[in-house]
Design a protein that fits this description.
Layout lengths: L14 H12 L2 H13 L3 H29 L3 H8 L6 H36 L3 H8 L4 H21 L2 H26 L5 H9 L8 H14 L6 H6 L8 H32 L17 H11 L3 H38 L3 H21 L3 H39 L9 H25 L2 H8 L1
Helix pairs in contact: 1-8, 1-12, 1-14, 2-10, 2-12, 3-4, 3-10, 3-12, 3-16, 3-17, 4-5, 5-6, 5-7, 5-13, 5-14, 5-15, 5-16, 7-14, 7-15, 8-12, 8-14, 9-12, 10-16, 10-17, 12-13, 13-14, 14-15, 16-17
This protein binds 4-fluoro-L-phenylalanine.
Length: 458
């Protein structure tokens, strides 16, 4: 990907090409599948508020950090750390990122497979073929999951092979506005359905008493996952970026696009949950909390689409799941690009061989997950919720104290002539050296119980 030929490193074809590809990486299942699930299981509005703070105060600074490291070194995440320091420890940061990418991709293809299979569920439902619709709606059918994950991995590998930044650019350019359009129309529809007001209130009115350490930890993990940070995906994308680009501006655009789409997804799914309840879908657990299992949106959204008449249902149901599949594809491409670029750069392997071998290896893990979807929760916990913020912390530390902010700012000056007198220059170093790494560290230590252990000692 992002190549002018299939063996060399290349550059993005155009400025908008990079921004679209980075936005394509960011916008995916994280926004529409993972975000609403986290909102529902973490007290609604309180989660949204903390999530927004995490995206802007931690995510955006880390995104600029990753892009600047990538553009400076023009290397994969492991090679980038090698290039900037002779200490053998630092490339391990990149290596951890590669591992997180591999493991996240292994479950991501399964969930992406569900999305694609729901395209068929909607078609058969509206065609009146109920038993077929039910078959395509089964999320724990191992064979079906395996087939759809394989289709997804196949599509990802073939796009990566082609060096087709063109394809991603075109797909994203078309996909984003249509996805936003469908989300808005559906929000307009759901707003007038029974239960919607409760859903909106739950989402938009923060109940501050709900803010807790686990909520903050989940919101931080969600911010990293959704913005594709902490594992070097944006080091890799930054490595194809031209010196003419204004990195902070591009990062701001990607952050806003990603946060905006997640926000819209919440506006649709929270009220849709209550609407689905009025149609008989069970959305509360026995203890009265909102149910938020990994198949939440696959319960709630079809209930919404099925409430439409046949023409509207086909148009919205089919195109929504199709677009979500495309959004997932532009994310799986970036997830696979990380280990692929690592093997190409560091072991001198041809792009074709690297992408096919790594894709096949990850597919084996996906097939195991296909038959036991309860694995998704644990892999997601270790490699997304803990793994990505940990990677982000190490990236902040490396940039702030090893490569140094001064060198990073010199790199950022390319494409940003007004940098010297900007607020960005005054503020970003404080976030990257102090605020972001301390917030991440505190949250990670809190999550493993270290902070309460220390508190008990005193
Ligand atoms: N950001 C993607 C999403 O929201 O679906 C997932 C993702 C892609 C995470 C690439 C990490 C990554 F490096």
């Amino acid at each position: 990907m992002a190549q002018t030929d299939t063996t060399d490193r290349g550059n993005w074809n155009s400025r908008i090409g990079f921004v679209l590809a980075a936005a394509g990486s960011a916008v995916g299942l994280g926004n529409i599948w993972r975000f609403p699930t986290e909102v529902a299981s973490n007290g609604g509005g309180a989660f949204l508020l903390i999530y927004l703070i995490c995206c802007f105060a931690i995510g955006f600074p880390v995104m600029v950090a990753e892009l600047s490291i990538g553009r400076k070194t023009e290397r994969n995440p492991v090679g980038a750390f090698k290039a900037l320091s002779s200490n053998k420890f630092y490339p391990l940061i990149g290596f951890w990122g590669v591992l997180c990418g591999v493991m996240i991709l292994s479950f991501y293809t399964v969930v992406a497979g569900w999305t694609f299979s729901y395209v068929f569920e909607e078609i058969f439902f509206f065609a009146g073929l109920d038993s077929w619709a039910t078959y395509f709606a089964e999320v724990s059918n191992g064979v079906k999951n395996g087939i759809f994950s394989t289709i997804f991995m196949g599509a990802t590998v073939s796009i990566i092979l082609g060096g087709v930044s063109d394809g991603i650019e075109r797909a994203t350019k078309f996909m984003m506005p249509v996805l936003i359009g469908i989300l808005m129309i559906m929000i307009g529809y759901v707003a007038f359905q029974p239960g919607a007001a409760t859903g909106f209130a739950e989402y938009l009115k923060p109940d501050f008493s709900q803010i807790s350490a686990p909520l903050i930890f989940s919101a931080m993990g969600q911010a990293f996952f959704s913005l594709s940070l902490g594992m070097g995906a944006l080091i890799t994308y930054g490595s194809y970026l031209s010196k003419k680009e204004n990195v902070p501006e591009a990062a701001a655009f990607v952050t806003l696009a990603d946060v905006g789409i997640a926000f819209l997804a919440g506006l649709l799914i929270m009220p849709a949950m209550y609407m689905a309840e009025s149609f008989g879908v069970n959305i509360f657990s026995e203890s009265g909390e909102l149910l938020a299992s990994s198949d939440l949106i696959f319960q709630v959204l079809p209930a919404l689409f099925h409430s439409l008449n046949t023409t509207a249902g086909i148009i919205f149901g089919v195109s929504f799941f199709l677009l979500l599949s495309m959004a997932a594809l532009t994310s799986t491409i970036s997830l696979l690009e990380v280990p692929t670029s690592y093997v190409i750069d560091e072991y001198n392997v041809k792009r074709k061989k690297a992408a096919i071998t790594i894709g096949a290896g990850i597919l084996i893990i996906s097939l195991i997950i296909s038959f036991d979807i309860s694995l998704i929760g644990s892999i997601d916990f270790i490699f997304s919720k803990v793994g990505l913020p940990l990677g982000g912390f190490l990236i902040c530390y490396f940039l702030g104290y090893v490569w140094t902010v001064k060198n990073a700012l010199e790199e950022l000056e390319h494409g940003y002539p007004g940098l010297d007198s900007s607020i960005f220059k005054a503020v970003w170093p404080i976030f990257i050296k102090f605020l972001a790494p301390l917030a991440i560290l505190y949250n990670l230590l809190e999550a493993i119980g270290f902070i309460s252990y220390i508190e008990q000692l005193f």
